[in-house]
């Protein structure tokens, strides 16, 4: 059935996804879906903010379906495709301003603050913060010691509980007093890589321009780019990994391993491991490329060694803390079989993925995946995305705070790449699809993105007040 999915079905699928997202909120806690076990912040952001964005996305999708002028859209896409570096630099500048103005240069959630805290420690030339031991219980909120931080009441040492790769990336920016620039630069790099990978697969500069436009018209990409979450780093590093392995050689495989070694320690190893598994398996089973596997693995060794060293250091601090048992218990409670509670959370996550992306983006990505399914590189990208989503069905948390669905963001770059491939080699006579895709992107940039940025600004401003 999917093999018959055609250009004519994209508009219907895009409209259906937007309509289903709106309908979800009216079914929640009424007929099918339940938010009973959602964390308070997840429920608040979902029901108080995402509902309004879902309605706006539906209006945009309907309006885009009525647009019939492909020519101005193609001129815009061609301009983007001809100036990818300039667009990437403009993205950096815009998101740097957004980090200061919209995000208030503020690590809002504890996930963000933990990395910022550790980056300040690294920027000061230390590995752990040091405070008077009798102040630990005053400075680290009870319940956070052992989950977001590891703090010893015996010797006063404090570190973040996550792996420190993103804090290391952030530390030079922290030292220069421009921490808000880190994720903006990673976003510029990521959007350029989305362009480059799409062009490499499709051999079509215009298709690469489309992919760039689709990414920039998506709230999740921009929101993570102005935040202090590590997710944009995961996205950018995984895209570098793909760019290196899309045409593997001895040097590229080793470099991909080095990049992967950084990705493993960004904040935990799971996001990159899930993304990389299909690519590693492909190298192992392709006889003409198997020789690159050993060097890829060698490239991973520095990150693995660093990660083991960090775990030992973290354990050393934890051993002097009575919270060590709590840490072990928390780790054991991360994974579960997909229960009704988890499945409810993941349905909400699917809605958030649609609401925080350009309307119709996933319909276009589906078309791109089908049209290019004979390309092994596309199959690997699809496998990475599916594996990332499915694996988190076995994680009991609902992500708590976050814009869009954070647990998928490490693989989110696959979506605009596939959507861009769907637009490859399209003559202007196929104006219906061009008009629909382009109008969705432009209206998202003009209406949905400012609306969601305003929501973020208001939420953080209220918190700071």
Radius of gyration: 22 Å
Q: Sheet bearing the most strands, described?
A: 3 strands, antiparallel
Structural class by sheet pairing and helices? mainly alpha
Q: Judging from the principal axes of the Cα atoms, what is the shape?
A: globular
Largest sheet, order of strands side by side? Answer: 1-3-2
Mean pLDDT: 91
DSSP helix fraction: 55-70%
Order of helices and strands: HHHHHEHEEHHHHHHHHHHHHHH
SS summary, helix count: 20
Q: Low-confidence parts, pLDDT < 50 over ≥5 residues?
A: 323-331
By DSSP, the count of extended strands is 3
Share of residues in strands: under 5%
Distance between the termini: 53 Å
Detailed description of the structure:
It is a single chain. This protein is mostly helical. The chain is 68% helix and 2% strand. The protein has a three-stranded antiparallel beta sheet. The chain is globular. The relative contact order is 0.17. Residues 323-331 have low confidence and may be disordered.
Salient structural properties:
20 helices, 3 strands, 465 residues, globular, three-stranded antiparallel beta sheet
How are the SSEs placed, and which strands pair?
Elements: H1 7-27, H2 40-66, H3 70-82, H4 84-101, H5 110-123, E1 129-130, H6 136-139, E2 149-151, E3 157-160, H7 165-175, H8 181-202, H9 205-216, H10 219-226, H11 231-245, H12 250-264, H13 270-285, H14 293-319, H15 324-332, H16 340-355, H17 361-371, H18 376-391, H19 414-422, H20 431-464
Antiparallel strand pairs: 1-3, 2-3
Helix pairs in contact: 1-2, 1-16, 1-17, 2-16, 2-20, 3-9, 3-20, 4-8, 5-7, 8-9, 8-10, 8-11, 8-19, 9-19, 11-12, 11-13, 12-14, 13-18, 17-19
